[in-house]
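Q: What would this complex look like in 3D?
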Amino acid sequence: DGGITQSPKYLFRKEGQNVTLSCEQNLNHDAMYWYRQDPGQGLRLIYYSQIVNDFQKGDIAEGYSVSREKKESFPLTVTSAQKNPTAFYLCASSIPGVTSYNSPLHFGNGTRLTVT
Amino acid sequence: SQQGEEDPQALSIQEGENATMNCSYKTSINNLQWYRQNSGRGLVHLILIRSNEREKHSGRLRVTLDTSKKSSSLLITASRAADTASYFCATAANFGNEKLTFGTGTRLTIIP
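A: Here is my prediction, written as structure tokens for the whole assembly.
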């Protein structure tokens, strides 16, 4: 079955450590996204990538970094510069291009990161 | 600031009843989407309605869009326990999913 896999489901880290969240998709989608979800708030876009080897900052990119070396993979690194990293992180993909505004986002099941 | 705001924030109804939740937004949009999120899981796309459409159906779901009032509603008919989830609207002012703005969601509880 096609889908998006995020791992791990739960992640615990000490403050000051970098941590990388995995996102893999087998939907053959060109576009991939990372969102952050905090309680009582909507999703906020961290980074997105429309094509391999290219990515753009979203609304809250500070303290995060990404890479897109393969079409299937879009890992997110939460660096020690992120002031409030504890959150639920969601990866998504979609068909881009001129019709991208009509294409739904497909989400993984998220990684809950806790930093103490 | 959030583009889409759902109302109510929380809703509890008996199984079999209809559930209605609303989404208001501030600026002109190209399309509006509704997503469902079960607790601790990712979002699932439900339905997309374009700015030139007024109503759309998908199974037990009915979505309306009133661009003059900058609002949309999601109606779930004959609710089931499995409909318990949070529902989010997402608006796109322009082309491109990177422009999507999500609301804060309505938490729906279906009481068996």
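A: To summarize the key features: Chain A is about 0% helix and 50% strand. The mean pLDDT of chain A is 92.
Q: Very helpful, thank you.
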